[in-house]
Write a structure and sequence with these properties.
By secondary structure, the chain is α+β, with helices and mostly antiparallel strands. The protein has two domains: 87 residues, NusG, N-terminal domain (Alpha-Beta Plaits), CATH 3.30.70.940; 91 residues, SH3 type barrels, CATH 2.30.30. The strands form four sheets. A six-stranded antiparallel β-sheet has the order 9-13-12-11-10-14, with helices on one face. The termini are far apart. The C terminus is likely disordered.
Length: 185
């Protein structure tokens, strides 16, 4: 990676549906650093079942670039827009991107997940995801850590061992728990 690219922020790009891989390949060929997180799933056709990679965030990919020079990004085939508030692009938090990259590199089972804001926030204390924070869920006896990209209002769930986690105690976690308790009463 070029040193000048490392200073640029990550942005979410909206793409045409099922054009995520195509757009990422074009961006890479232009010298940009796209990040398209994927997961493996099984697709059934009439004559066979095949394992394919699907985007964790359908219709989106991430790219690091200079915001002042975004025209080459916007004219890339398959790219619709840079996600932001109105016409003002908003960078993705580096910690959110780093967490998603860690999950993809861990090769643990993962899948898209509905966006969550409240719940038990936990920190992974050991294993390949050590240091990540997210929301702990229990689904059919399996524990999952849910990581969210706030700007996209999308989340990813990765299967974990419940022994790896410890609760996060912070003002924001306490505020979230208080909000849940207030809504419940």
């Amino acid at each position: 990676m070029k040193p000048e690219i490392a200073r640029h922020s990550w942005f979410a790009l909206q793409t045409r549906l099922r054009y995520e891989h195509f757009a990422a390949a074009h961006l890479r060929s232009k010298g940009y650093e796209p990040f398209l997180p994927v997961y493996a799933c099984r697709r059934r056709w009439a004559d066979r079942v095949k394992k394919v990679e699907q985007p964790l965030f359908p219709g989106y990919l991430f790219c690091r670039f200079d915001l002042l020079n975004r025209l080459p990004i916007l004219v890339t085939p398959g790219v619709i827009q840079v996600i932001g508030n109105g016409k003002i692009p908003i960078p993705i938090d580096d910690e959110e991107i780093a967490a998603i990259q860690t999950v993809v590199q861990s090769e643990l089972p993962r899948q898209p997940w509905p966006f969550l804001q409240v719940g038990q926030k936990v920190r992974i204390e050991c294993g390949p995801l050590h240091g990540l924070e997210g929301i702990l869920l229990d689904l059919r006896g399996n524990h999952r850590l849910v990581l969210s990209v706030g700007l996209l209002r999308r989340s990813v769930a990765v299967e974990i061992d419940s022994a790896w986690v410890s609760p996060v105690s912070s003002k924001s976690a306490a505020a979230s728990e208080a909000a849940v308790l207030l809504r419940a009463s």
